[in-house]
Amino acid sequence: MSDRAVDRTWGKGAGVAHEVRGVVARAKGTAVSLETIVVPDPGPGEALVRVQACGVCHTDLHYREGAINDEFPFLLGHEAAGVVEAVGPDVAEVAPGDFVVLAWRAPCGECRSCRRGRPWYCFASRNATQPMTLPDGTPLSAALGIGAFAEKTLVAAGQAVKVDPAARPEAAGLIGCGVMAGLGAALHTGNVGRGDTVAVFGCGGVGDAAIAGAVLAGARQVIAVDIDPRKLAWAREFGATDTVDASVVDPVEAVRGLTAGLGVDVAIEAVGRPETMRQAFYSRDLAGTLVQVGVPDPSMVIELPMIEFFGRGGALKPSWYGDCLPSRDFPTLIGLYLSGKLDLDRFVSETISLDDVEGAFARMQQGAILRSVVVF
């Protein structure tokens, strides 16, 4: 169906609402459905974006499974690029016609982290204040404040980051989440430097982005660790110098064997499981850095001997969205892509229609693809 505008009353004022198709998760663990959703015209500080492409990220599956929270129904999708169709009052960041990548961090400029000059940690990131709804008025919880498995979505204007329109939407949208998380884990959180040694545990989309980030930073050795030979082959394509099949060898011993018995300067955990986090912890050289960017299940715990934590030194650092600043990093990464220095196209395994998101979840769980991208 094509979207259509209908008159609605929103809050205290009258406005236009847009009826479009969107992918909704109504209950924990049940298949998603393609439904009509209602998107309001933008109010103050908001932008209406016509979505052109949206990646199928594992976080969307977490939402469907109730692993994020239980605020069903969810409007899924968040890794997206599109064109601004309209903006509300007091919007200066973007204008209608701008090609944008959507970010789930939009620094508020006012919280204690922003005031201390650390907007990449913003504790009060902005989202649209008006809800998108089902036709009966039921409000939808937009995944990561975006909800981009829809022909149009409403976001805070600060979430729409203007980039070079020469970029392909299906590639550009991926920096909105997974690629940025992985690249940032290496470049920002891990501070990988020229000549460093790096190990990346888990070579899906985020892990391969971390490999690409380590290569961009000038690492002299990048070791990819996974239990799937197919993913290790992908890791080679993104620049891994060595691979370790953790299904057949002890990955800690293998990493040490590849680094003259020392371990790596930076170990990046991109799976989100206690066992891989422990492997990454022990694969570091003395004073090495462990970065955890894989999203764990809330029930998971990690246990480490305190003497090992103390005696090995270094740093254990979770990576929030690759510690990125979207307004700074998104245009930079698109520039690297357009100049041939960052191969975003390689992340796109397949393009699909909006009604194939459930199938893409299944293929993701099977490890059959790197990234499915919905193209509108």
Query: CATH fold name of the largest domain, please?
Result: Quinone Oxidoreductase, Chain A, domain 1
Spatial gap, N to C terminus:
11 Å
For this structure, what is the CATH class of the largest domain? Alpha Beta
> How does the helix and strand content classify structurally?
alpha/beta
Overall mean pLDDT stands at 95
What is the number of E strands? 18
Order of helices and strands: EEEEHEEEHEEEHHEHEHEHEHEHEHEHE
Give the overall shape: globular
- Uncertain ranges: 8-14
Number of helices: 11
How many domains, in number, for the residues? Answer: 2
Q: How much of the polypeptide forms β-strand, as a percent range?
A: 25-35%
Q: What is the share of helical residues?
A: 25-40%
Q: Major sheet, described briefly?
A: 7 strands, mixed
Rg over alpha carbons: 21 Å
CATH superfamily of the largest domain: Medium-chain alcohol dehydrogenases, catalytic domain
What's the CATH architecture name of the largest domain? Alpha-Beta Complex
Give an overview of the whole structure:
There is one protein chain. 25% of the residues lie in helices and 28% in strands. The chain is α/β, with parallel strands linked by helices and 376 residues long. The protein folds into two domains: 4-176 and 343-375, Quinone Oxidoreductase, Chain A, domain 1, CATH 3.90.180; 181-320, Rossmann fold (3-Layer(aba) Sandwich). Strand 12 (221-226), helix 6 and strand 13 (242-245) form a beta-alpha-beta unit. Helix 4 (178-189) packs parallel to helix 5 (205-217). The N and C termini lie close together (11 Å). The model is unreliable at 8-14 (pLDDT under 50).
